[in-house]
């Protein structure tokens, strides 16, 4: 119950209940504590189940251009978010048949079960509907409680992984606490299982705080745990560089550097002001990029923002890029990209493909931060006397941001940036 207010404030704020609460119920005692949601499915704008189903032909091939246009207008209806996201994140080629996708799905589920069994041999609690929040191994790498860890080993990979499980457990308890979904231990443990198995496989990154915030919506939207894992895997392929931690740097600093370069180009006045305040490295935007604005939006609005972003960033080659890096090279769009092919790209990605400027402009999230800064441009210029003030001004935006407007603004900034840095 920590962080939730008392009954009185709940009663006072009840009036704004929407139908969305049926999809992502908030614990009653937390209602006063979470930002209000702006997103509402709108008929004629939001991608509905009926429209979604009619975008597949008789073989099951998806008209992705049609779907992207719709998502751009009003997001995805909560009842189909999970299946749509699988495509947006590149789990499936939209031009595959239903039969092909079914085969891939069964193969991936089998693969996941094998990995899970591997992990269960070491830590039997995994997959049991329960999870642990206590340390599993001591500093010497030996199991603390032999009933929890079934093997004795000094294998570095195993010991490091066991150490991560403790941190994952602590973070799972704190993830989206206000949602009724996580009141049940079995549902928390689904998040724990997915993150733990991911950490077992990604030896480079393992687990870093913030990955729980990216994974949680997928756990809620995608019922089958293996399917959910593969979706998270795809999401991480886009974002994992941000989570790369070394003794001296965080991966996300690369994106912050790009942000600095963009701001310097599109709004030199604001950039120089921030530099004067010693904020030229944009560290205050760290969290926005790491967890993709999860703290700035309500749960439902984050989902809306993410599907808008992923729709705009959509690239039909994305799935081959990951499944088969060599194949992606040969399939990559060449100079002669015609209009029909371009319709299969999201709006943001389309500009990159047209201009061939892949390096600096790879993530819409960076331009989104720029758009957020622009909405606060005046206040930062006149009121901020230090970085703390900037943080405070940006903290005030919670619940006042409109996902669709912010994305539109981000696209404008992208265009401005591309114009200004164009080779003559
Ligand atoms: C989809 O696949 C079919 C069969 O392989 C192919 O003929 C068609 O050109 C593909 N369409 C697109 C848009 O790639
Ligand atoms: C727990 O997860 C299951 C399966 O996804 C879901 O049907 C159920 O509603 C969840 N529990 C709560 C309290 O939301
Ligand atoms: C970018 O350049 C194009 C063509 O020169 C122009 O039409 C457009 O208005 C410019 N956009 C911005 C945001 O500066």
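Sequence proposed for the structure above (424 residues):
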């Amino acid at each position: 119950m920590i962080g939730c207010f008392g009954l009185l404030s709940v009663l006072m704020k009840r009036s704004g209940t929407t139908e969305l609460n049926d999809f992502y119920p908030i614990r009653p005692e937390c209602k006063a504590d979470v930002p209000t949601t702006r997103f509402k499915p709108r008929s004629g704008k939001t991608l509905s189940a009926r429209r979604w189903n009619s975008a597949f032909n008789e073989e099951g091939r998806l008209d992705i251009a049609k779907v992207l246009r719709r998502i751009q207008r009003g997001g995805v209806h909560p009842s189909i978010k999970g299946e749509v996201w699988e495509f947006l994140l590149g789990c499936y080629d939209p031009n595959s048949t239903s039969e092909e996708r079914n085969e891939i799905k069964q193969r991936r589920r089998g693969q996941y079960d094998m990995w899970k069994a591997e992990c269960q041999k070491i830590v039997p609690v995994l997959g049991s509907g329960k999870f642990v929040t206590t340390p599993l191994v001591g500093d010497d790498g030996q199991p603390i409680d032999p009933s929890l860890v079934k093997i004795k080993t000094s294998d570095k990979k195993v010991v490091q992984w066991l150490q991560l499980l403790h941190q994952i457990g602590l973070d799972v308890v704190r993830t989206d606490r206000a949602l009724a979904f996580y009141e049940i231990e079995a549902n928390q443990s689904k998040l724990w299982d997915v993150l733990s198995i991911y950490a077992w496989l990604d030896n480079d990154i393992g687990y870093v705080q913030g990955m729980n915030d990216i994974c949680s919506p997928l756990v809620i939207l995608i019922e089958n745990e293996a399917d959910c894992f593969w979706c998270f895997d795809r999401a991480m392929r886009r974002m994992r560089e941000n989570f790369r931690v070394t003794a001296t740097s965080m991966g996300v600093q690369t994106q912050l550097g790009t942000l600095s370069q963009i701001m310097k180009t599109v709004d030199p006045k604001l950039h120089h002001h921030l530099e004067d305040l010693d904020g030229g490295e944009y560290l205050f935007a760290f969290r926005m990029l790491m967890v993709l604005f999860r703290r700035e939006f309500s749960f439902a609005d984050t989902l809306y923002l993410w599907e808008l972003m992923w729709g705009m960033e959509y690239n039909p080659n994305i799935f081959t890029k990951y499944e088969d890096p060599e194949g992606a090279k040969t399939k990559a769009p060449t100079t002669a990209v015609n209009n029909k092919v371009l319709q299969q790209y999201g709006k943001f990605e389309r500009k990159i493909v047209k201009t061939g400027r892949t390096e600096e402009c790879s993530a819409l999230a960076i331009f989104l931060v720029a758009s957020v800064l622009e909405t606060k441009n005046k206040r930062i210029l006149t009121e901020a006397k230090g970085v703390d003030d900037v943080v405070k001004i940006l903290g005030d935006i919670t619940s006042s941001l409109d996902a669709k407007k912010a994305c539109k603004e981000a696209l404008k900034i992208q265009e401005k940036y591309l114009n200004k840095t164009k080779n003559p």
